[in-house]
Each structure stands twice: as structure tokens, then as C-alpha cells.
Amino acid sequence: MLVDDVKIEVYSGKGGDGRVHFDTTKLGQGPTGGDGGKGGAVYLEGISNIGALEKFRGKKVYKAKDGKSGGQNKRNGRAGEDLILKVPVGTIIHILNQNKIKEINKIGEKILLAEGGMGGRGNFYFRSSSNTTPKECEEGRSAIHLELRLELKLIADVGLIGLPNVGKSTLLNTITNAKSKVANYAFTTLEPSLGAYYELILADIPGLIEGASGGKGLGIKFLQHVERTNTFFHLISVQSQDPQKDYQVIRDELKIYNPELLKRKEYVFLSQSDLVVEKKIKINIKKLKEIGLEAKCLSIENLESIKEVERVLREVIEDKKA
Ligand SMILES: Nc1nc2c(ncn2[C@@H]2O[C@H](COP(=O)(O)OP(=O)(O)O)[C@@H](O)[C@H]2O)c(=O)[nH]1
Ligand SMILES: [Mg+2]
Hints:
The chain is an alpha/beta fold. Helix content is about 20%, strand content about 25%. The protein binds guanosine-5'-diphosphate and magnesium ion.
């Protein structure tokens, strides 16, 4: 199952302590204690793998490295390594013990959650003309502890919707780098998948069937992931006996979940068009026209139709920029 809600704890690194040390060579007697290194910070970084919250289910506590203590001969301690946790784009970060919320919306976006503690200063720092042999140094500052709830809300630009088995996953895999499971029976793909087409993110929303909004199947759970999606590709199989009904079933489920979803831009595709004879395609195109839909033919066997999908995607990219 897709993990889309987890709680973890993170700690930044503690600062290294400053050091008290004096030169032991014959000529000098001065202070040479170095500063402690800064502790590692905690960052979150957005990646495209929507399954990335899975790894937080087992391990719950994550720590950046502490800074090292200062050394002799004015050597400063090494800084602690930062902790960078990778989360899927669309993750909402609830910082529970600070009552704050942050979001990661882009691949590669990195946000700082907790600074590492500053290193303490060594006695070399405290030397002065009035005190040439200071015995003071500072402790490193403490780490920051955060309790986090990571909640995934996918931010897809295009949502692929339609009944099971109409070719949504196949289309996603064909035009993006996604590796969505494809199978010839309903309900194998129980996880939504994401793929990228240039700067667009496409989401395959599986499991929508009649009654999904009433708790049948799992589709309804995934609709939260397209709540912020502006465009839908609605696939209807050319093999359908009643394409009008297939269309309406999905529209009804969207409506019950959130009527706003019906206002989003929608492109209708008559999919798997290589599987039937031309006449059947024409009949189904006509049936869809009767309810005001201009359906485009689509088949992964037909390069022209894939190019047409890509043309529509470029249109979506233009719309997005505008
Ligand atoms: N012949 C043909 N088969 C297709 C096409 N698109 C998908 N399929 C097949 O239809 C079945 C269901 O496809 P899938 O992508 O899993 O459908 P989904 O449930 O909507 O994600 C799989 O066996 C696919 O190989 C197509 O354009 N032509
Ligand atoms: Mg699928």
C-alpha cells in the first residue's frame, strides 16, 4: 500500500565543544584551543518517487551528526554531516511540536527544518591583551528536536482517470518514465503512480469504479491526490458497450467526492483503439458526441495517437505557464 501519512522524529546535530589548550613548545605558552564544529542540519528534499514515505514506517528517529570538539593548535572541530531526508513532492510537513506547516512542491526543492547547534569557542578565541592565558571555552549548542508528521498530497498537473483496465497505467508508462504496473484485469494497480513529462507531473488514479465514493474499491482514497489537479485525461475503452455510461460512472464518483472536480479541464480519449474495427470506433465516437464529448482515439500501437497525446500535454504546459 502507498504510505501517505507517517510520523517521525528528527534531531539536528549538537555543536562540538570548544577546547582549552596551551602551546607546549618552548617559545609559546599561548592558548591554542580550537572551536567546536557546527552540528549537522536537518533538511527535507523533494523527489519524484511517491513511494518514498514507505521507508519511514520502520525507522522512526533520525539524527544529523554532531559537530566534533575543537582541537589543539587552533584546529577547529569538523562540522557534523547534515541529514537530508528525501520525501515525495507533494509532502506536507506538520511540525507537531512547533505547530508549523511546510510543504515540498518541487523535485529537488530542499527545505531547512532544523539548524545544527553552533560549535562552542575554544580558548584561543578568548585571548586578549589583558588575559593571555584564558582558561575558558564554550560548550557546543544543543540540537533541535522536531516531531514531524509527513502527509502526502500528490500535486499532479494531469490526472489519468477512467474505469479499471482502460489503459491508464499503460499510457502513463508510454509517455513518461513511470514504471506503473500494467495488467489485464481490474484492481491490480492499487497504488496511484506518478510520472513526469517534461515539467508536468501525471498521476494515474486507479480503482475508480461505480460506488467508489461510497467506499467500494480504493479509488476514493486516491482522489485526494487530484484535488489540486487542473486537467484530467479521461480514458474510455473503445471496447465498451456503453461509453456514455462508463463516462458518467467516473464523473459521478468525482462529483460525489468533490463537485469542484467536475469544473476541471478534461480531455476524453477512446483508448485501446487498435483492438476493434473502424466501425466500432465510429459508433463509440458518435455516442460520446451525443453527450457533448469530442473524444480522441488512442492506442499505444498507434504512434500518431501518442503524438496527439503529447501535443495535448504541450498545450497543458503552455496553459500552466500562462
Ligand atoms: N491492444 C492494446 N492494449 C492495451 C492498450 N492500452 C492498454 N492495453 C492493455 O490493456 C490492459 C489494461 O491496461 P492498464 O494500463 O493496466 O489499464 P488501467 O487499469 O487503466 O491502468 C493491459 O493488458 C494492457 O496491456 C492499447 O492501446 N492497445
Ligand atoms: Mg492501472
